[in-house]
Amino acid sequence: MAGFDKVVGSYEEAMAGLEDGMTIIAGGFGLCGIPENLIAEIKRKGTRDLTIVSNNCGVDGFGLGVLLEDKQVKKMISSYVGENAMFEQQLLNGELEVELTPQGTLAEKMRAGGAGIPAFYTATGVGTPVGDGKEVREFNGREYLLEESIVGDFAIVKGWKADRYGNVMYRHTAQNFNPLAATAGKITVVEVEELVEVGELEPTQIHTPGIYVNRLIVGTFEKRIEKRTITES
Question: How distant is the alpha carbon of residue 129 from its chain centre?
Answer without folding.
Answer: 24
